[in-house]
Each structure stands twice: as C-alpha cells, then as structure tokens.
Amino acid sequence: MVRPIEPLLPNNSGYNYPNMMKLCAESGRDHFSICQLHVVGEVLAMTDESSWDEEEKCFWLRLRDEGNFGEQWLRQDGYSLGLGIFLEALPAGAPGPDVREGHRKALSEVRGVRSAFNQLRDGEQGQAWQEVPRLSITDAMLGQGVQEVDSDEARQILDGPAISHLLREGFLVIHDALDEVFASEFAEQMAKLDNGWNLHAAPQATPGQRGDRLLWIDEEIAVARYGSTAVSRAIRLLKGLGAALNPALTAHHWANNDAGNPAHALKPRLPATDTAVLTVSPKAQLACYPCDGAHYICHQDNKFRPTHGTRLNSRELTTILYGNATDWDVCRDGGQLKLYLQTEDLESAPPSDHPSVHVAPTVGTLVIFFSRLWHEVLPAYRPRRALTMWILRPEEEESWMPNVF
Ligand SMILES: O=C(O)CCC(=O)C(=O)O
Ligand SMILES: [Fe+2]
C-alpha cells in the first residue's frame, strides 16, 4: 500500500528526527524517504542520501534539483527547511501513482509561489514569503561539483578562434560539430528516445512558458537503459566542453572582475594558477518540442541579481546539440533558437527586434552561449529535438537560493 503524501505544511518544525521515527512506527514502515523538499519555490528532489549525525543529533540531507544545477547538504533540524517537505512512507524505488499525483499538486503550488517570487523586485519580500521559515546558509554545507570530463572531440571543436568568439560575443555556433555517421546515428537515436514514450512534460513556471517534453539522461543511462551509444557519446562531448573552456573562462572572469564587473566575481577568489572554474551537470536534458507550434518563450537560464551579488543558480554556459534531420527547413518547420545579443545584464526580456541570431536546429549543430543571455525557441511545426548540457560554476551553488530570507 502506498501512503498518500502528507499535505504541505506552512511550518515544518514537526519533521524532526523523533517525529519521523514516530511516523515510521505508526505506519509500520521501517523508514521514510523525503521525496520532495521545497525551498524558496524551487523543488529539490531528494536522492536517497541522508544520514543521521549522532553528534549533532540531526539528519543531513543531500539535496539536488532534477538537473543538478544546485546541490547541497542541508541540516534537517526542524528549522532550516524551506516551504515544505513531503514524506512518503515508501520503500525505496519508483513512486506509486498517488504519489505522482501528490507531486503534481505540489509542483503547481510551488510554481505559484515561484511566479510570485519572480514578480518581486530585488530586496522586496512579498506575501508569498511570509510563512517561509528562515533557511540559514550557515546550516547548509555545500556539496561538491561534478568532476571535469576530458574529451578530445570537445577540444578539437573548441579551437582558439572559437573560444575567442564565445567570450567576445557571448555565443558560439558550430554547424558541423559531428561527423556524418555520428550525426545520423545521433538524430536517429534522439527520435527513438522521443518516440519511445520516455519523455515527460517540462515543468513550467507559468502556463504557456514552454511546450517541450523532457528526459534527463547521462552517458551511462543512455547506453545501459536505452542502448543509445551516439547519445551517450554526444553527452560526453558536451561534458568535455567545460574542461576545454576552463582556462580561457577563468582568465575571462578574472579580467572582467578586475575591470569592476561584479557579475564575474569568482567566489572564493581563486588563485591565479587555478583554472578549474567550471564543472558539468551530471545529466543532460533531452528535450522534444512537438510539431504543434511548441515553443519556449524568451528567457534566461540564469540571472545575476546585482543588489544581492548572487546568481539564481550555478549555470554558466548552456550548450546544445541538435538532433533533427538535415532537411530541416526553417521557413516550413520553424523551431529556430533565437539568441538576443549582449543581453546578459538586462532585467527583463528585450524587444523582439533587438539584435539577434537565429540558429536552425539541424543535426550536428552545436550552440554554446552564456546562460544569462536572453533566448527563446520559436514555434516548431516538426518534432524538434535538442540535447542540452549546462556547464556550471560550482562555487556559485550556494547562490541559487535568493537571499530574501
Ligand atoms: O532547445 C533550444 O534551442 C533551447 C532550449 C532552452 O532554452 C532551454 O531548455 O532552456
Ligand atoms: Fe533556455
């Protein structure tokens, strides 16, 4: 039997260790797993890692969001949690259908809060936050970023002129990043994954924001679960871009920071010889936009909040490999990525006639851009598939939590 999820509580102080044990005893289960934790409107999915600290008499929870852009150890002492926790009295394993329903409700609630948050101006505390208990950063120990992945393929693609273009313009498009055989296998396997009912609707902060369906996937799952060797190779290639860019990116941030741009600050300030700024997200996002005009409105993948001196999340660069047929016709099929140039510091979306580049999502095209650049996916009239990897700045992981607390 699956026990329904506990309702969202405005205050989580009941979820301390003794009470969790009591709940276990009452339900006849030998453990509870925390399946969802909401902090300032983000949903952080719990992995199965939590540990009881005998000395501190508290649980440490390892929290990650779905794409693993944010990760931290959080002390669960009944005071330091955000909007709410859902407890499932479930043995480890796939959630049952009523749990999924609970998740859906929770997500829509969280999205409501989140969109209220997005409408707040810097420093303002809105209605949405009044019930949120204080989350102390000093109670949270930051998790480690994922290791760098070396890839010869990535290094070959990112030669000196390509890197200079990326740093100067904020984006880079390479049309022949994959050889012909790799490209056609990649497109074929992306279609197979999409057509095999493996994807689920992307979460939306506001209705109509995006119409794609997603699968989070890493290079091992791609092979072991789906037999998609070309997708696995593509994920490794994308992961390798981080390592290939590290030295130049570090120098870039140093130069901009020294020139007084706080958005480039390296925290903690790295020694000049240390070039390891970037890590990669463990999983890539496989996204398919169905052919019914599905799109993604103009947005940034990350934001720098000058009044707080923090970023919303750890994403630094967005890297995408497209997996669509070579006869993609933008006039007929639409679906271009529209990148608005030099818009990283804009607070709100630029007008649609702002200088931009349009990228056709043809197989073999690789695009890399700074995640704070405003961009959108234009309506697609043919299934449009993309594999996205976010390259992260792990030292920023703390700052995805806006410090409205
Ligand atoms: O697929 C694309 O071209 C861009 C997708 C995107 O902006 C996103 O997933 O955040
Ligand atoms: Fe995006």
UniProtKB/TrEMBL annotation:
Pfam families: 2OG-FeII_Oxy_3 (PF13640). Keywords: Dioxygenase, Iron, Metal-binding, Oxidoreductase, Vitamin C. Residues 280-393 form the Fe2OG dioxygenase domain. GO terms for biological process: cellular response to hypoxia. SMART domains: P4Hc. GO terms for molecular function: ferrous iron binding; L-ascorbic acid binding; peptidyl-proline dioxygenase activity. The keyword Ribonucleoprotein does not apply. The keyword Magnesium does not apply. Its cofactor is L-ascorbate. InterPro entries: HIF_prolyl_hydroxylases, Oxoglu/Fe-dep_dioxygenase_dom, Pro_4_hyd_alph, Pro_4_hyd_alph_FE2OG_OXY. Gene3D superfamilies: q2cbj1_9rhob like domain. It comes from the Eukaryota. This is Egl-9 protein. It comes from Symbiodinium natans.
